[in-house]
Design goal:
homodimer, 347 residues, alpha/beta, 434 Repressor (Amino-terminal Domain), Rossmann fold, 3 domains, 12 helices, elongated, DNA-binding, DNA binding (chains A, B), Peripla_BP_I (chains A, B)
Amino acid sequence: MEKPPKVTQREIARIAGVSQATVSMVLNDREYSNVRIPEATRERVRRAIEQTTYVPDPAARRLAGLDNKILGVFTYEAALSRESLDFYGPLLHGIEQEAERLGCDLLFFTSSPVEDGTRKLFHKQTRLRLTDGCILLGQQMDSAELTRLVEEGFPFVAVGRRDEPGVPYVGIDYVTLTGDIVEQAVALGHRRITYAHYGRSTPAAADRVAGLALAAETMLVETTLLSTADSDLSEVAAVIANGTDTVVITEDVFMAEALAVELAEHGKAIPEDLSLAVLGDVEGHSLGGRGMTGFQLPREQLAAEALALLQQLIVRNDKARAKLELRTMIEGSIVAGATLAQLKESR
Amino acid sequence: MEKPPKVTQREIARIAGVSQATVSMVLNDREYSNVRIPEATRERVRRAIEQTTYVPDPAARRLAGLDNKILGVFTYEAALSRESLDFYGPLLHGIEQEAERLGCDLLFFTSSPVEDGTRKLFHKQTRLRLTDGCILLGQQMDSAELTRLVEEGFPFVAVGRRDEPGVPYVGIDYVTLTGDIVEQAVALGHRRITYAHYGRSTPAAADRVAGLALAAETMLVETTLLSTADSDLSEVAAVIANGTDTVVITEDVFMAEALAVELAEHGKAIPEDLSLAVLGDVEGHSLGGRGMTGFQLPREQLAAEALALLQQLIVRNDKARAKLELRTMIEGSIVAGATLAQLKESR
DNA sequence: CTGAAAGCGCTTACAG
DNA sequence: CTGAAAGCGCTTACAG
């Protein structure tokens, strides 16, 4: 199996009887310093290309300073495992669709070494430079890495709101959504709410807490915050079961499911004894046959918008880039569900 | 936002007070023509690299003829959509895991233009050349493309058996699995089997038919083949309902589910009136609460082995490559299930 | 209008 | 042992 020598522009030039530079110009449909290539020449070049199996070498193009039409996808943990896919699936689908539309390929940084449980974007062999720009996904983004990307002026977009200055992102407006859930609870007669959360320090987690605090102040409800980082879930359940709050809100659907089981052991049924709502996506989940009350998050749209923004960062020049809205929050919606119910009597 | 000039080996060389070539050698831990670089020099270079944000430019490495540690993933249709993920999910997971182990990144050719319903691997802008090698996934592989890859000596591996000469693959042994299903049916007293299939011309489809024919001959059973390409599913159901065959085997689980609905309308219950088995993966699927009889296919393993083989094709020299087993079939297993039952009486 | 040439950042021979 | 140089396949100025 001898490899036939790779066809290059030089070979095309030889066949067409022109210079290699001319081939490059025809291929890129570009003309420099009042150069004009006659249609006849272009045609000769095109025919020569068709005769052969020529494809431009993307490494050479990139080295010469051109776009690659390759976008990087960096996830802070494995994205394609069965469990991750529940979260990453819709995001990846949105990314794939948008990439297809833009004519870009996607480089997944699966090789990134794992340190302290999360992958590192920068390492001795990072292929980041090969891409025109990069999308960052995951809860546990590394602040130092984000800052370095900003400093280097490397085009990238984070999926999810970030606090670091200069970081472009597309995020979900958890503050508003959380307020909407509280509003619903209040409309149903509730006045005392427990929020069970993971005690994480991510921006999204902070936004939920902020949204809750804001709503509590505006609507005069009392809130109790319980973190599973401080005490385990069964303790949290015990506190709720023995307390007087009438609604329990959880950070995500998995905590809701686990907590419902614990609460059942305390004789608390949902929503008869206690209402429940989730500050996360509840699509496809139910609790004892009942649809859950929570969010419907447009994850595919989120990812697609992030990719579209990235593309703009890449193709625009510095001036046009300055006009770009680097930070976008998109709205999710509330899923009414059946786990948040009218308050029956005062306890 | 001025981009700081990219750090190159030249800059490292300047800092360390050595030549750029020396930097390259230290980085790659390589020595040519009885060259030996003293540890002291190596240390100076390493320190210079740590001082800066140097990362090697993968495009330049590739252009200079080195491996990229990038493996291409080509799917003949979108892989990350909700529906595709059912099929591609386990394969992609296996690929991701193995890539992580090998320290490789993955390039998904999402940009490939769609023609006649399937994506084209070769097009004017294919980034194939950027990868060290490529994994091919999908039912509808293009023979011409496979042949071209073989001719060009480009390293690649197909997931699924292929007929084209010289194509390396890792496939599933449908012939044996199909025989096993027939054997089970025979052991349960059945002698007449209908096989409902899509009439596809893929190697996997052909293997199922071949396995069935072989088993039928060996075990003296009569088989009827019905293709949904010739007549639609309700007609197929009618033929089965009015016939005397006691087992219906379908090509995959989706056809099984659809066919069961049609058969119910003819008053045929499964497995009381008719047994059913599937020549495809049945994990996670059931029919009216009953586990389906069919295959359990080790898709993750399949994909991982394909990637491992690809890696071998890439790193081995021509001589060592010749010793490689280019074609592997791996065994799936039978899921007993409850839809294939003992034949009650003769009809 | 076309060709010869520099340069992108590397690897790897080959002189010193 | 080290440095200067060629080459990978492109793009893009700059002479002719």
